[in-house]
Task: inverse folding
């Protein structure tokens, strides 16, 4: 009798957790769609505000990207700490409403500096993605977190595949229309969440808010508190640094080395996105169940290393495409790393942990683009043996080799635990 009752109680709880995860999945998907929708029109809008001066517009747009990454670095720990204190629900919903209002500001922006203010606000509000990951950690058992984090990665991929396509179509009607669509999706998602999203962090498991912990340096102190956390954070930083090569120079690289036009570039990026979605949604769960989180981390890093190497040495566009499935399988690494890290902190610190991870990514996104764009400029400007367009991808390969070595050093204790 007791066993039957327990099963009956567990079923509604499991359904509630599944519904909550679906909402978080949709939230991240819509967030990424909103970001992706404005990608095709935002640079052109900036250039238009600069009187059609493409060179000046490019510099200003670079400032936009830096400001967005800086806001991620500064505010991810704050939002994570706030979610540990006041719960995940309030932070996620306020962020959704904030993102929606931000896109309204950008849709109405009369000057480039209004657009800049919008990107700053967007960077602040998008920092709640860390809270979304903490929410998933709250409602998911430890052995299933890697698979769930992988599904969130699939939401990222789907958003960045579908968003630019929708943005391009809407931008052809009006350069402001993509911003209105993004605003509508964000506000509608927030309103839906206001009605159905339950809180994932009980009052008894919340921690006190502290400004000392809610800043980037304070959040990083959590990582220093545990040797394995710090090591895995180093793995994530090196991987994020390597990843910065892809948005920084991929389009320029394909155009320069293979003569790709906009259509070919778009199809290639779509292929990358589709491959990533397949891996994140269908492959991570079974692989993690089969070889564990540590093994999945190493397999993912190995595929990423091979993928960057193929990109670096590919002489033709067809050879370049051989690296796409390898790069997609690199997507095994990040969810496994996050799952390993989430095991090493309590429920009241999941928000702070994910905030610290987002800050690490913000630092990588601040310094990575300069490393790869300057390397690419030097490599294609040099002559003779030094003319090596694939040099940025070779550097990214080296970063992942270092990440794999760091992961091996850090997680050796996992072997003894398994034994």
Result:
């Amino acid at each position: 009798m007791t066993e039957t009752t327990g099963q009956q109680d567990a079923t509604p709880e499991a359904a509630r957790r599944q519904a909550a995860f679906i909402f978080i999945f949709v939230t991240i998907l819509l967030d990424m769609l909103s970001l992706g929708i404005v990608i095709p029109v935002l640079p052109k809008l900036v250039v238009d505000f600069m009187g059609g001066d493409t060179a000046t517009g490019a510099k200003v747009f670079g400032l936009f990207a830096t400001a967005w990454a800086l806001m991620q670095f500064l505010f991810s720990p704050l939002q994570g700490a706030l979610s540990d204190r006041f719960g995940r629900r309030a932070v996620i919903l306020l962020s959704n409403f904030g993102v929606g209002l931000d896109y309204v500001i950008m849709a109405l922006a009369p000057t480039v500096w209004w657009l800049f203010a919008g990107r700053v606000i967007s960077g602040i509000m998008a920092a709640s993605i860390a809270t979304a990951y903490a929410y998933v950690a709250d409602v998911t058992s430890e052995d299933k977190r890697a698979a769930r984090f992988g599904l969130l990665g699939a939401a990222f991929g789907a958003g960045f595949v579908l968003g630019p396509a929708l943005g391009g179509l809407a931008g052809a009607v009006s350069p402001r229309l993509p911003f209105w669509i993004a605003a509508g999706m964000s506000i509608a998602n927030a309103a839906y969440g206001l009605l159905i999203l339950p809180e994932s962090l009980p009052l008894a498991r919340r921690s006190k808010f502290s400004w000392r912990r809610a800043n980037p340096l304070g959040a990083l102190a959590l990582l220093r508190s545990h040797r394995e956390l710090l090591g895995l954070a180093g793995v994530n930083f090196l991987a994020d640094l390597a990843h910065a090569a892809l948005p920084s120079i991929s389009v320029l690289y394909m155009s320069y080395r293979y003569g790709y036009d906009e259509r070919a570039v778009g199809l290639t990026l779509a292929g990358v996105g589709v491959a990533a979605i397949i891996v994140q949604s269908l492959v991570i769960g079974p692989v993690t169940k089969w070889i564990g989180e540590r093994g999945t981390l190493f397999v993912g890093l190995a595929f990423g290393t091979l993928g960057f190497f193929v990109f670096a040495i590919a002489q033709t566009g067809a050879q370049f495409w051989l690296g796409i499935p390898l790069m997609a399988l690199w997507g095994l690494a990040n969810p496994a790393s996050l799952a390993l890290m989430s095991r090493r902190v309590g429920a009241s610190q999941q928000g702070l942990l994910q905030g610290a991870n987002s800050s690490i990514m913000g630092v990588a996104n601040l310094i990575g683009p300069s490393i790869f764009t300057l390397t690419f400029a030097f490599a294609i400007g040099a002559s003779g043996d030094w003319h090596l367009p694939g040099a940025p991808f070779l550097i990214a390969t080296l970063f992942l080799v270092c990440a794999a070595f760091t992961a091996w050093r850090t997680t050796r204790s996992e072997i003894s635990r398994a034994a």
